[in-house]
Amino acid sequence: MDDFVRRDGRLFAEDVPVETIAQAVGTPAYVYSKRTLLGHFRRLRDAFAAVSPKIRYAVKANGNLALLRLLADEGAGFDVVSRGEIHRVLKAGGLANSIDFAGVGKKRDEIEYALEVGIDMFNVESEAELELIEQVARDTNQVARVALRVNPDVDPKTHKYISTGQKESKFGLDIDRAQRMAGWLQGRDAVRLTGLHAHIGSQITQVQPYVDAVTKLLALAKRVRELHPTLTSVNIGGGFGIHYRENEAQDLTAFSDALVPMLQESGFEVHMEPGRVLVGNAGLLVTKVIFEKRSGDKRFVICDAAMNDLIRPSLYGAFHRVEPVGNPPGDSSLADIVGPVCESGDFLAKDRELPPLAPGDLLAVRSAGAYAFVMASNYNARPRPVEVLVDGDRFGIVRARETEEELMRGESAQAQWCDA
Ligand SMILES: *Cc1c(COP(=O)(O)O)cnc(C)c1O
Asked: Hey, what domains does the chain have and what are their CATH numbers?
C-alpha cells in the first residue's frame, strides 16, 4: 500500500503529478513518498506496540540521508553493516547509541570507529570476530556491548539469495557454538553480552518460519541469561515481506499476533531491524521510453532505466509492477521492458500488458524503494539516477543525478608510477 495513486488516469506521488517531477529532474529518477515511509514505520510500531520494540531500520535497504533523517526524527534506530553506513547515519542526524552493527566481515578499523563513536552494540557472527572486538575494546579501554547472532536453522521460504538462517548460510552461529561463546564471554571485562540476535532472511511472507526462529532464539536466551544477567534484549531481525504484485499492505498483525505473546512472556527487551517493509513500497523508479522495437513476434519497450539502476529483476528474477505514468490510448499487448545496457540480462520486466508507447512516454516501476538505488552501479558508464522526495504537494531532490565527469573521479589515464 502506498501513496502513488492515479487521478484522472495520471499517476501522482502524493499530491504531485509524477510527470511534473520527471519534467523537472529528468529520468531515470527514483521518487520517494514521505507519507508512505512514515506510514509504514508507524504501522509496524503500532502492530508491536505491546512490546515497545526498538526499531532499528536496516540502512542497507535504502541509505539516502533524507530518508534516514525522517526515520531518525520518528524515533528509529539503525542497523548497519559497514563503517560507511555508520558515517551515513551520523551525518543524517541519527544517534550513535541507537546503532547496531551487523555483518560477517567487520574489519579492525570499522570496529575501532564503531567504538569511538559509541554505537549501541555489535551483532557478532563468529568466534574470530568476537576475539577481535574484545582485543580492540581492551586496547582502547572500552567496553563493547555485543549480541550473538544465532543461526536458528529455519527455512524462511524465500529466494535462496536472501535466505540467511539455514545451516549452509554464511550468517550467524549455530546454537551450540553460540552457547559455548557465551561461556567464553564470562569474566571478560572488555565485552559485555547484552543480547541475542537472529535474522533468517528477507521478503518473508509466512509467519511460521519467523515463529520457529524466535522460539529457538528465546529458548537459548533464557539459558544464556543464567550465565549473563546483562543479557536483556533479543533482536528478532528484519525480513517482513511486502506485496510486489498487488497494491496491498503487508499484514503485519499476522506477524505481531503470533510473536507478541511469546516476546511479552519472555520479559526481554525487543529489538527489530526491518528494511524492505518500511521503504520498499515508498519508492518508484520513473523512466522514459526511448524506442519500441519488434523482434519476430516479440515486442520490446526500450527505456532509459536499466539493470544498473535497478538490478532486482536481473539478480533475483524479482517482479516489479510497471505502468504508464500517463494514460496512452490504444490496445495493450505483451512487451518486455528493457534498458540500453549491453547484456541479455538487462530487463526490468517481462511479458507485461502495455498500451502502445511513443518515445518520451513515461513508465513507473513500482515498489522500488528497497534494494534499488543502493544496488545501482555505473556499468556502461551510466550515471546513477537522481533521487527525489515528495511531501504532500511539494518535491525536492535528495540526491543529484551523477554527472559523467564525476564517474571518472580519482581515475587517471596515466598511472602515477611507484618504483617497487
Ligand atoms: C538485510 C538485513 C535486514 C533487513 O532485511 P529486510 O528484509 O529488508 O527487512 C535486517 N537484519 C539483517 C542482519 C540483515 O542482513
From this structure: 4-31+280-407 (2.40.37.10), 103-272 (3.20.20.10)
- Per-10-residue mean pLDDT for the chain, 420 residues long? 93 98 98 98 97 98 98 98 98 98 96 98 96 97 97 84 73 91 93 96 92 96 95 97 85 95 97 98 98 95 98 96 96 98 95 97 98 98 98 98 97 95
Cell of 45: 510500531
Q: Is the CB of 163 under 6 A from ligand 1?
A: no
Do you find a cis peptide bond into 28, omega within 30 degrees of 0?
yes
Q: For residue 302, is it left (φ>0), alpha (ψ between -120 and 50) or beta?
A: beta
Tell whether pTM > 0.85. Answer: yes
- Taking CA atoms, 348 is separated from 214, 315, 319, 320, 321, in Å, by 36, 11, 8, 8, 9
Q: How far apart are CA 397 and CA 388, in angstroms?
A: 4
Q: How many CB atoms lie within 10 A of CB 60?
A: 20
Beta strand pairing status for 121-124 and 99-101? parallel
The answer, yes or no, to whether any atom of ligand 1 lies below 6 A from the CB of 276, is yes
List the end-to-end C-alpha distance of the chain, in Å, as a whole number: 59
Q: Relative to the CA of 102, which ligand 1 atom is closest?
A: 13
| Active-site choice (128, 342, 413, 420) | 342
Q: Is 162 in the pocket of ligand 1 (CB under 6 A)?
A: no
C-alpha neighbours within 13 Å on the C-beta side of residue 57: 36
The number of beta carbons lying within 10 Å of the beta carbon of residue 412 is: 7
Q: Has 342 been annotated as catalytic?
A: yes
d(CA 317, CA 354): 20
Closest to 307 in 3D by CA, of 363, 346, 365, 350 = 346
